[in-house]
Amino acid sequence: xxxxxxxxxxxxxxxxxxxxxxxxxxxxxxxxxxxxxxxxxxxxx
Length: 45
What we know:
Blueprint: H1 2-9, H2 11-24, H3 33-44
Helix pairs in contact: 1-3
């Protein structure tokens, strides 16, 4: 779980979803960066 969250927390992943949404005409996804960063930190403790 931690490894998957670390990948999701990568800014490039969020940018990928933003670009994919723009290309496909989907609404822009909400940023989960603060939540993901907090959860990764909590799991490492």
